[in-house]
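Comment thread on ticket #2218

A.B. wrote:
> Attaching the input chain for the structure job we discussed in standup.
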Amino acid sequence: MSVMKAKIDYLSRLLHERPAGYLDKVDAGLTEIVAQKSPAEIDDLLSLLNDFGEDEAMFMIVHTIERWEDHAYCMALQTDLERLWKTAPRWTQILHIRVMNSPNASDEYIRLMKQNSISARQVARDIFVSIGKKWPKLVEKVNMFLAKVE
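C.D. wrote:
> Ran it. Output below, let me know if you need it in another format.
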């Protein structure tokens, strides 16, 4: 097992078991992972997101993922989109809201999505439509975003 895989597995156990002081350990583990500057780790970090995890821990993961360049972040997000949408819909929505709110990430997401498959674009569309339904104040922004992707 690679060192990085072992770190991801360790984080997964911490997030599942939630022992005393686990948030500090998660933070330290995420710092070690991001220090490697390997975009390949973004997929593994995305797999740690779940809608039953403690918000503080999940936001730590989100903030860590966002430390990579927009291209790597958006590419990983789109690569894992269908699985992520099925396993962590709330966090998938949150990630997409954050992409929409970042001009650079938004531009890169749209650029990459235009090159993606029809099925991937449909999953993204479903995510953005769900955001508009859950947060009506974002409908206008969602519609503008969708118009750029389609």
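A.B. wrote:
> Thanks. Noting for the ticket: The chain has one domain: 3-149.
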